[in-house]
Amino acid sequence: GLNFNVDGDLTADSIGVSGAGLKNISVTGNVMLGSATGAKNVRGRNIKLTGSSNAELLEAWGIPSGDEGSQGSYASKKEGDTCCGEIETSGGVVVDKANANGPVKAGSNGIGIINSRKSVSLTVGSYTTVNALQDVTISSSIAKASIINTGRNFIFTSDDVTSPMTVNAFGTASCKSNPGTPPKHTIKAKVSIDANCKGLIDSLITAPIVDKVAKVNLTQPKVDAWALKSMANYAIELEAGNQIKVTVKNVNGIPDDTYYVGKLATGAREYLCKSVSIVYGARQCTGDTSIALPFCFNGNSEYNPTCFTADFASKKLTITGNIVPSTMAAGVVWMNGDLVLNGGPFFNTFIATNNISTSGDTTVYAVNYAANYLLKTDGTDDAVCKNQRVPHFDAYDKFYPKNFCSEGKFIPQSVGNIGLLGLGRNSSVTPKAFTGGEISLTSKNVIRGTVVAGNILKTYGSTTVYGYISAAGLKNENDVQNVLTASTTVDLTQLPNTYKPEQIPDTSGGGTGATAESKVLWTRYL
Predict the structure, then answer these.
(1) Alpha-carbon distance 46 to 33, whole Å?
(2) In which element (H, E) is residue 40 found?
(3) Which of 480, 477, 484, 481 is nearest to 462 (CA)?
(4) What is the SS3 assignment for 74?
(5) For residue range 460-504, what is the model confidence (pLDDT) as tens digits?
(6) DSSP state of 368
(7) Rounded to 10 degrees, what is the CA torsion of 406, 412, 418, 423?
(8) Burial class (CB in 10 A: 0-12, 13-18, 19+), 245
(9) How do residues 120-179 score in pLDDT, each as one tens digit?
(10) DSSP SS3 for 182
(11) In whole angstroms, what is the distance from residue 404 CA to residue 371 CA?
(12) Which of 5, 16, 11 is nearest to 516 (CA)?
């Protein structure tokens, strides 16, 4: 199974994992899981489960208000906040075991075992064993607990319950009405017992022992798009004069050099040209256009709409494509600024120094994944080096990334495992300042590659990622959080052998084959 780690808060309405499933969710902030979201283990400062979410184990590590070391409040998002260790469930939630440093408010289908260092309140559901250092309260006849051990008081404020119940209260026991007579129920208290409880005083009762839940600590990863620029086949920069500059490196059929995006005198298709002039508001190739090289396709005709839309003031580039199997020449695309993707499929690894977002249905194949476009796992298909991308355009087919190919055979590179990566470290500021880092996926998205958000991830549409997801939270902003809505699915089944989702380049200044570090949403490591 996969591990899902978040530095900050996590709100997830619907996330799923195909294959072995989601194993661990570990969060330094608050966790809120909604419909159809589940995991084996969930750990967070405070945890709230609603709808039909589920887990085998919940652990709320926050320090309750008033206890030594407690800072902030339940709702606050300041760095270093530690309050309050609460667990709350409602709806059809089913949990095997819940451990909390703070109070537990259980109003769901049920929790097998509850261990709380504070109080427990049961309003709905069935519970096997409840251990609490403070009061345990049952306020509904449809809340059923088999065994209750409380370090303080047992409080029964409802009518009769139908299932057998054994209560050991280190303090007192009080009942609004008779919960039933022995042997149906056995209620014992050390200090005193209400007559309605029909129980016994037992001086030998001892307080339960509940271990403290340890705080979640995650190692901060290194994310820096600038460190990956040298690995790019196409490095794009928006320059003065409304020029889209592309530095080409290691591409078969294109000499390493600086080019500019423009169209020919007729048609709308964009090419890589040695020079471009603005003619009637459009970028047009000048000079010797016989060496102009087709770069991107938004349809089969020369007169289809252009691929590139640039906002030079905000340094934002939108790439729109629509042709199967591949919109652009395969390879690593690096962008200085914001990058917006629309359509595809793209046989590219996309890296941006700022933010990455999608607009409309978008499909991305990371370069290593694209090599096996036909999804054969034996390595016999090579859509990158053998030019199986766009059979309609002979002039376009010869462009392949030479650093990924040797004598027609695909050679995976660690950078080629990345589908999307966003965040830069501004070298002009000391210490280096972070820029961007948000990946926002809207509409319907299929990303066949690892997603690395240097700061936060937001999903608003139906998103499927065939790989791992990292949201590093490097900017340490108090007012932002990862948000996964609609449907977000991670699928690690039937991956091609050229693709290793856990391996991404080291951007700390070291080598280029490092394994993804631990402060991530989905990864093999905690």
Answers:
(1) 11
(2) strand 38-44
(3) 484
(4) coil
(5) 878 888 888 887 777 767 667 777 776 777 787 788 889 998 888
(6) H
(7) -70
(8) middle
(9) 999 988 999 999 999 999 988 888 899 999 999 999 988 766 678 899 999 999 998 777
(10) coil
(11) 9
(12) 5
How far, in Å, are 38, 298, 332, 366 from residue 239 at the CA level? 47, 23, 20, 27
| Nearest residue to 389 via CA among 365, 411, 412 | 365
Angle of CA points 126, 128, 131, to nearest 5°: 115
CA distance 318 to 333: 13
Contacts of 85 (CB under 8 A, 6+ apart): 45, 46, 60, 61, 62, 63, 64, 100, 101, 102, 103, 117, 118, 213
Cα–Cα distance for residue pair 475/138, rounded to 1 Å: 44
What's the maximum distance between 2 C-alpha atoms anywhere in the chain? Answer: 100
Six-digit token pair at 24? 């661990």
Classify strands 243-248 and 234-239 as parallel, antiparallel or unpaired: antiparallel
> pLDDT tens, 168-221?
999 999 998 777 655 678 999 999 999 988 899 999 999 999 999 999 987 767
Cβ atoms of 115 and 131 within 8 Å: the answer is yes
Average pLDDT for residues 240-263, to the nearest whole number?
92
Q: Which residue has the tokens 């977000």?
A: 488
For residue 116, the number of C-alpha atoms closer than 13 Å in the C-beta half-sphere is 31
* 456: pLDDT strictly greater than 90: no
DSSP assignment of 295-327: EE-SSSSTTSPPSEEEETTTTEEEEEEE-SS-S
DSSP string covering 439-469? EEE-SSEEEESEEEESSEEEE-SEEEESS-E
Tokens of 138: 């049952």
Which residues make Cβ contacts (< 8 Å) with residue 464, sequence separation at least 6?
Answer: 445, 446, 447, 488, 489, 490, 491
Residue 526's Cβ-count burial label (10 Å; 0-12, 13-18, 19+) is middle
Distance CA 373, CA 145 (A): 54
3-class SS letters over 223-247? CCHHHHHHHCCEEEEEECCCEEEEE
